[in-house]
Amino acid sequence: MSGPLVASRPELAVATSLAPLKAGTGTWLLIAGNALTLVAGMLVIVRAGARPGSVVAVEFEEDGGQRRQLLAGGLVFGGLATLGLLMPAFYSDNAFVLTPDLMNGPGMAAAGGWLMAAAALFGSVLAATSQSPKFGRGVLLGLGVAVLGVLLPSQIAAAAVEWLQTDGLSVVATVGAIGLIGTAVWPAGYVPWRQSETKLGTLTTYRSHVVAGVLAILAGITGLLGRAADLVVVERPTDKPITQTDLLILLSRVRPQSYADRLLLPAGLLLLVLGVLLLIKPIAAAVRPALSVGWVAMPLAGLGALDAVVTATNTSTAIRSGTGVVWTVIAVVLAIAAAVFAGAAGGLERDTLEQDEERRTNIVLAAPIVAAAMFAVGAFGLPTMRAAEFAAPGLWQNLRLASWGLLLAVVAILIAIGIATRSRPGRAAMLLLGAAAVVGVHAMEFPLTSARAAGAEVGPGTWLSLACIAALVISAFVALAVRPERR
């Protein structure tokens, strides 16, 4: 529907001139196949479900410990698939094949890309948190096949054609899709953590807390090392010719000063504190929800720092990445690993509860929590500082590597807010306080980095961050003070 010159589908057609192209039989067959798939999906939604008390319903209610497997695999691989779908599948050197761009590309193609990414994100969350393991397996299997169906043709075309280059970040989606399929087809009889007695379940839960805490501590330490080390260094290039810009930078003997890595300090300290608290057995279960959302502070700070490195190294070949980049990447990876084990511990905790315990929704939380969600979108979507010669990364414009950190943070906070409404009071409060800590790290961007631009002023993102923190803290106190009503 976007036209062959702007559709960026090299696996289907590549124009060789500006002459108008006509749709062939294959085009109509492709549209018909997509339409039939959409109709089939709608029919399945209408017919979904099983009569209560039937054999099918009982079979779908069986667990056998599979929910923990779906929780870990669904969230991890679903997140990877979503992240990869937001990246271009290839870069093009051909004027007749444009590089895919979800932000500035044709409307229909961009809408389809965003819809696919949203489906991968919310579908994986739905499957990971489903009460029915078989339903979750089916959703993960469908998501994995769909992601591969969208990406593989473009990636194969990029690998086979000279004037196309595969984007390494889009391969993350392929890995995520394979992981989703693997999680779905993993033998139902083999589960890493089998249901056992309550004492054994409690012991396994604490072990997950210990692993998550150790990973969080390591993430915090490596984040602090990334802040202490140099992100970029100046050295004479030996692999490329020296340009005039390189010569000026080398002769100036000025050590590059980076401001973007300063957020690694509060992010590292946050993970360090949460990790230490998670090692204290009496309070580990209470602190775990805070780490389940607090881990995102490291990708938020880390991707912002790496974005500055990409910008600096593209300016001159005399500017190279320093050891701080290595520590920052390691910190981000360890934070993600800590999140996985924190989520696994949460699944173990839920499995040790009584099976007949009803979930309760705290309706009183509606007002402050909705306000917090709205403030969060504005806090991460609008710039925290403004200056005449400074363009801050954003979610709707000036999309850069740091933008993905902002997107990941706001999505994690919104998911945490939604889960808090149906969580036990103590767990909900810690989840909201963890989200407030992440917003606090974001709010510190202006006081820590305002010196990088002359005449910098506080932006609306900073004020909305402070408002979001207040709303989240109030919501946490409401969650503790007001008992939720039974549904």
SSE run: HHHEHHEHHEHHHHEHEHEHHHEHE
Q: Give start-end ranges of low-pLDDT stretches.
A: 189-203
User: What is the terminal-to-terminal distance?
Assistant: 46 Å
**Widest beta sheet: strand line-up:** 1-2
Q: Largest sheet, if any?
A: 2 strands, antiparallel
Class from helix and strand fractions: mainly alpha
Can you count the beta strands? 8
Summed over residues and divided by their number, the pLDDT gives a mean of 76
Oligomer state of the chains in this structure? single chain
Distinct helical segment count: 17
Radius of gyration: 24 Å
Beta-strand percent range: under 5%
Report helical residue fraction. Answer: 55-70%
Which term fits the overall shape?
A: globular
Report on this model:
With 487 residues, this protein is mainly α. The protein contains 17 helices and 8 strands. Strands 1-2 form a two-stranded antiparallel ribbon. A two-stranded antiparallel ribbon has the order 3-4. A two-stranded antiparallel ribbon has the order 5-8. α7 runs antiparallel to α9, α11 runs antiparallel to α12 and α13 packs antiparallel against α14. The chain is globular. The chain starts with 24 loop residues before the first helix and ends with a strand. Mean pLDDT is 76; it is low at 189-203.
